Amino acid sequence: MSADIKNVLNSTDGLFDAVVNTKKSEIENFVLVTFNDPVFELRIITDKRDEFKTSLRSLRVSGGGDCPEMAMSGIELGLQKGRPYSYLFVFTDATAKDMYKFERIMKYVMKLVDSRKVDIKQKQFNATDDKKVVVPLDPSIGTAIISVSSGNSSLNVKDKDNTTVGTEEIAKTENIKMSNFGRRIFVETPDVDGLLSDRRSDPTFLQQVVLWNNTNPGDYTVEINSTTNTLVTIHGTTKVTFNYGFSVTKPNYFNETTNRPVADQKSYILIKLNTEGIKLNLQRLQFVDLKDNILFDKVKFVAQEDHYYLTEPINFPKDTFKIVMIAEDEKTKNVLKRASLPIESQKVLPGTMENEAPAVTIFGATKVKASTGKPLQLKCRVTGYPKPKISWEDAFGTTLTSTVSTVREEYEYLNVLNIEKVHQSTTYICKASNIISSDEKIVEVDTGDRFAVVKFSKDKKIEYNKEEKLFCKVNADPPANVLWYLNGNQVEANDDFDISPDKSTLTIKKMKQNYIGTVLCEVRNSVKRLMYNMKLSMTGDVGPEIDKKTTEIFVIEGSSAIVSCRILKGNPKPMINWTFKSKNNDTFYDIKEYNEDIRIEKVSTNDVGTYKCVAKNDISEDSHILDLTIEYAPVVLGQSNIDINQQIGQKILISCDIKGEPEPFISWFLNGLMIVESELYQIDKDNTLTFEASIKTMGQYSCEGVNKFGSIKKIANVSVFEPLKIDLGETNITIEVGRQLSLSCPVKGYPKPKIQWTFMPLYDLELRNLSSSNAQLQIPEFQTSDSGYYVCTVTISGDEKTHLFVVNVKEPIKSTPKKIVAVDGDPFLKIPCESAAEPKSTISWFKNGAPITVGNEWHTLESDGSLIIKDIKTPTAGIYDCANHDRSKVYESFEVNVAMHPDANNLNYNIEYFIENKNGTVPCKVAQATTDYILWWYKV
């Protein structure tokens, strides 16, 4: 098998030579993939001869006897790494008897790639079709190559005069069983794309390749005699082809372009005509789909020079397309068309990109002559994955505004720096960095002045004890002298510093704390003087840093414990000292421990306390404190069951004196229900529960403490009280006989007080208990014998208070009411109360002994105490009393009767005559009763 592999390698080597040894080939690079079982591997992607040959010769044969191999995986990897519509050559290490076909196949492949080739036509026929193809050849076509893929077949070529054209067969493979298809040496090209399924259905497979030379322009007919599905592909060699490249920025050279456009971005197209002496004029470009349908052809050219053409930026089709070049031969005026291979926008397949360090390439010269005050454009190309951070910087390290555009998705980028005016000779740096590494390239710009800035260092952060170089470089004529200063002191070469022979580079051999500050370089010649400052700071976490995440260590008594002082950073290595103070002590004392960890085998109460470690080196020191505590289940530090009796309205505070290690989680409950903080209940940081004593807040309270070792409760039974209190109110009461009276004992207190009413007559002083035990004593109808002393006695928990009422019952004052006659239908009747000796505001009116409500649509009370009765009707009649509010004193009584209105109907009116300016009398001749009086006169 190794001999077979050697033959494959030699033939592949010959194929590579066929490509690179001809100037006519359009193949741009090579991808080498190997596969066996189970490994498949990408070896190289290159366009360099030596790299490809080295990779090819490094292949070694090992193992054997295990077929088939991982061919499809190798093909898949090749498809992922290759460019769209590339040539794919698949070599499998099948059995040796199939190797005789290899030379004939390779002859065809080499013929295709050793010259410029154009696709003329491709057509696929079904088995029953009439298989004829018309082939148009223009004058630039030299040799035509026909590839027929079918079952057993023969072909015949005729020119435009129907004369048979002589052809040469250069390859033919036949009678190959499909069961051997995956175990032979096989060359796959676009010519047979889409026929794999047909071959598997046919009993045999044949590929025939013929060519004819010295073709004349015109239409040729190719006739194929075949009874199976057939694919015909015609290529031609030509002196006229074209190259193209895409760029999102305006390119100057082809190396600034790529062979596929960036998706969703406008791009320029750079076209180069390859004519081998034929003078052509490019007329226009068309864009067609894979079925040759024109997508658009109105493309403007913005530049043209010696077979190079540049289009305006355009948006390209989202689907695969081809570029059709249409040109005219200046001499013959023949129109030539050439189509590109299918093109699609750049795509990155998931998993196909590998991490790659950035690489920077400068477009154009790295030493540029420029004129002061003139614009300048600099370009750099950057490759790498993931996408690098790309920038241009000046000699002082300042990042400049530039434009980054994509050349190849996720891999290649172009960074353009436009300098509006060049001021002096200097350097510009294109920088790129990603997570893998970084790269940079320098462009020197020379304006011809005598003091050109080359490189200055920016502010530096230097790791402790590390070396660092600082630059202060100019190109000057006459030569400039450089002096270095650190924090105001001139630096000389010694054990700590090196200075380059031209003094442009200062090397700090080992960074130290006392170098932190400002470095100044002075550059001077007889023409110019420059001063430049650089700030130095130190990194590397040189001072000690202790891990302070742990501040408490909890252990069970008798178990082991480790008190740790872990050093995170420190250079040089810090020294450690430990001190300790017990739980009830305020003073630390040294302990003889110098390691990061202190191990205590059996922890006792003597070990409980605070440990302090101090880490110190030449730079600084750090310290940390840890508390060692013995863990235990929660306990109550006082009484676990208490009773609280508090006055209503006062605050109640219940402490939760539960301790434990770890600190218990505390919860409060009332009658078994959890308490949450609210307006009613407040829980302080020390877990004290605060609330106001009320009947609502009585009950059993419990606080529960829980940690991982157990739980415990403290219970508080809360009851409330209100002190006994009797408000002193009216104690002397006068009431008329027959009136009802309710005496109220104004008592307050909780729990509900016990009440006893007693009565002592006014004259015989005989005390007797009354049956009522309520706060109110109801007496429905007083008699004179009920005059006396009424006492309510209130008792709460042994506390007793009394309240005395003196009641005087009098016979009502009899008076003769005044008589008033009202007229039915009158709008109102006014009854005065002139005898009232009290303020008018205390007057009340009663009708037939019942109180009258005033201030409504029936009755109102005037400011002098008079009663106004509205809308007089028969029911208005009655006895009206003007009295005080409880009618114990009646000021005046009125008997109101209602009479009918005088009848004034059917009266004879008299005409009265008066002398002007003299008095006159008009009589009212209406019959009147003794109770009638005249209310109104009218003039009509």
Automatic annotation (TrEMBL):
GO terms for molecular function: axon guidance receptor activity. It is found in: Secreted. It comes from the Eukaryota. Coiled coil: none annotated. It comes from Papilio machaon (Old World swallowtail butterfly). This is Hemicentin-2. Its main location: secreted. The keyword Secreted applies. InterPro entries: Cell_Adh-Cytoskel_Orgn (IPR050958), HMCN1-like_VWA (IPR056861), Ig-like_dom (IPR007110), Ig-like_dom_sf (IPR036179), Ig-like_fold (IPR013783), Ig_I-set (IPR013098), Ig_sub (IPR003599), Ig_sub2 (IPR003598). GO terms for cellular component: axon; neuronal cell body; plasma membrane. The keyword Transferase does not apply. Keywords: Immunoglobulin domain, Secreted, Signal. GO terms for biological process: homophilic cell adhesion via plasma membrane adhesion molecules; synapse organization. Residues 358-446, 449-537, 544-629, 634-719, 723-808, 811-899 form the Ig-like domain.
